[in-house]
Each structure stands twice: as C-alpha cells, then as structure tokens.
Design brief:
Layout lengths: L16 H13 L5 E5 L6 H13 L23 H7 L6 E4 L17 H4 L2 H6 L8 E6 L6 H12 L5 E7 L7 H5 L2 E4 L5 H11 L5 H11 L3 H9 L2 H12 L7 H11 L5 H23 L12 H11 L2 H20 L4 H20 L1
Parallel strand pairs: 1-4, 1-5, 2-3, 3-4
Helix pairs in contact: 8-9, 9-10, 11-13, 12-16, 13-14, 13-15, 15-16
Length: about 375
C-alpha cells in the first residue's frame, strides 16, 4: 500500500486552478495580504495549496515570469528547486509550521488541540529579518484546532503584522475561529474536487485498487481525496458494503449478522473500523434525507441496490422522521466517543433505531 504524501512534499495539486489564480494575482499586484484563511472541506488540498504558495513566495515569486517574460503565471516550483527540497525536509529557515504536537514523549499520540506553547514563537519568528532576504512564512494547519489561548496569541500577531511576513491559516470550519481572526485574513474558499479528479488521484496514489472500487471510493469521498484515501486504507468500502447489506434486510434486520458485525467493529484493536462505520452510517442516513428532499433524483449509487433500498425506506416513513433518526444516531455515536460507551451497543442501537422506523412504516 502506498503512503499518502504530506502536504509539504505534495508536488501535484489539481482542481484548484481558480484559487491559485487568486493568489497569483495578489502576488503580481504587489499588494499581497499578510494573512490568508484557506477554507474548504477537509481533505481537498488546502494544506497542499498553502505549502505550494509558501514555496512560491520563498522562491521570490516562482521560477521566472510568463511565456514572454511577464509576471509569473504559475505557482509551480520544480521538485529539484532548492526551496522545494528545503521545505520538503523541514529545513527552510524562513518557514515555520504549526500543527498539533505530541501528547507523550514516545510520540505515539497527538494532542487534541494546538496550544499556546505551539504558537508562542510565531511573533518573534515573523519579526526577524528573512534569512534569505525575501519573506518569512508561517503555516498553521489547521487553525480550527487552536484553543482559545493559542488563538489569542495568533490574533496579536495578526493585529500588528511585520513587513514581508505571510501567515497562511488552513481551516476546515472557519466559523469556529475567532471573528477577529477571520476579519484580519483574506479568505480563500476551495471547492470540493470533481469526482473524476478524486478517482484519478486514487489511481495514482493507490494503483492497486480495482477500477470499480476506485470509482466507489471517489463517490464516498464526496470531493475529498483525503477522505477517499482514508477509506481505502481503513477498508472503508468493504465496511460500507456490509452496512448497506445489513440495511437491505429492512424492515427486519438479520439480528445474528448484526451482532457479528457489531462484535467485530467494536473490538478495542478495531478503533479505526468503529469510527469508519459510525461515520459511514451517519453519512448514509444524511444521503437518504437528501435523496428524499430531491425525491430521489440524481442520487448516484455507491454500491448496487442502494437506490431501491432508499426508495423503500423513504416510502416507509416521512422525511422528518428520517431526519430525527439521523440526529439521534449522530448524537449516539458522538456520546460513544466522548464518554466511552459500549461500542457494540452503540452500533446495535444505531441499526435498531433505523429498523424501528422502517417497521413502523411498513405495518
């Protein structure tokens, strides 16, 4: 199995030409904003774009102008360029990156948030004269993970930005950030990737996948190559097929099969499987509600038989009732994670909640 490249070494970025053009125009105007909030769903390439732009800035505006010697027309920096190599090896003196730190000395688990100690040195770093005579750049990935003290420390830097210093904040949920941070950044919104682009990237990064599986994972990814890769690596497609197979028995579930499934995904060593199943079931129910809202039009199947299953369930109960089940199951799985409820019981409870509504409507 191939390893997913870290954004700092990811040379290929697709599907975000309009966003790259915005950054290029800002650079070429000579009035580059000192802070950018790069927003969009998780796993679509926001951090890769941040590193791509950082390399461009640290290289003094790329590798030359356009075709006729004009301003640069691409953010691309070749993999052999010294700046690319130093950024990839985390050895560029003018680039500082902030991510969640390790919670233990053995580096086995990350902290749940970015704390003030992680960002304390940003102000001093950005105030220094650039070692290579150009810019100082800070990337925060992701800004959503900053706690209040860390956010306040970053805000102080944003309020008095040093000259020739650039801050790039990656955000999956900008609404969670302090309004004062949002107001001091120029926002750059990235859109989900086209399904075909996700499938192409899967073919490159997971060449062992069969074509049909690749297409199904691209659909499950909903425009996020990060999500599609995670599902591929965690056996998410097989788990999704099992979820749909169980639901296909409605209005009466195969209880022995459900218990066997719950036993397997709830084992302590199957932590990733439990999270994947909970996420997939919540996603499937949200998809069911969306299908009902559009009367089933345009909802492409991930696995065969889904459309017929959704049609049966939508005929069995109102959209409002299915929305209530989605909310109930979302809360159930969130509580199972937060307060360590019995995971098997959470899985059983979720499927049985769906069964109760399906049976009530079929009487």
């Amino acid at each position: 199995m191939s390893e997913t490249p870290h954004p700092r070494v990811n040379h290929s970025l697709r599907g975000h030409g309009p966003a790259e053009q915005v950054l290029l125009e800002a650079w070429n105007s000579g009035r580059l904003a000192h802070a950018w909030l790069i927003c969009g769903p998780k796993g679509i390439g926001k951090a890769s774009l941040a590193y791509r732009f950082a390399r461009f800035v640290l290289a003094g505006g790329g590798e030359g102008g356009g075709l006729f010697g004009g301003p640069p027309d691409s953010l691309d920096i070749g993999a052999e360029h010294p700046v690319y190599r130093r950024v990839a090896s985390q050895g560029h003196a003018d680039l500082e990156t902030v991510e969640r730190g390790w919670s233990d000395d053995k580096k086995t688990k990350l902290k749940t948030e970015i704390v003030v100690e992680d960002v304390r040195g940003i102000g001093a770093f950005m105030s220094l004269t650039p070692a290579e005579g150009g810019w100082r750049v800070v990337i925060i990935d992701s800004a959503d993970e900053m706690n209040r003290n860390a956010a306040n420390a970053v805000l102080k830097v944003l309020e008095e930005p040093p000259r020739n210093a650039l801050m790039l904040l990656v955000s999956h949920s900008p609404g969670r950030l302090l309004p004062t941070i949002r107001s001091r950044c120029r926002r750059l919104m990235l859109q989900p990737l086209p399904e075909a682009t996700v499938a192409e990237l899967l073919a490159e990064q997971r060449p062992e996948l069969a074509g049909a599986d690749r297409d199904a994972l691209a659909r499950l990814g909903e425009g996020s190559i990060g999500k599609a890769l995670a599902l591929a690596d965690e056996g998410g497609l097989d788990l999704y097929r099992e979820v749909v197979l169980l639901l296909n028995g409605l209005p009466r579930l195969d209880v022995p099969a459900l218990h066997a499934f719950g036993d397997r995904v709830a084992r302590p060593e199957n932590d990733a499987s439990f999270r994947t199943v909970s996420g997939l079931l919540i996603w499937w129910l949200a998809r069911l509600v969306r299908a009902g809202g559009r009367e089933g039009r345009g909802m492409a199947e991930v696995v065969p038989g889904e459309a017929a299953l959704m049609g049966r369930l939508l005929a069995a109960a109102s959209l409002e009732h299915w929305l209530e089940v989605w909310e109930k199951i979302s809360t159930l799985f969130a509580r199972a994670e937060a307060v360590h409820l019995d995971r098997k019981q959470a899985v059983l409870g979720a499927f049985l909640a769906v069964e109760r509504l399906a049976r009530a409507g079929s009487r």
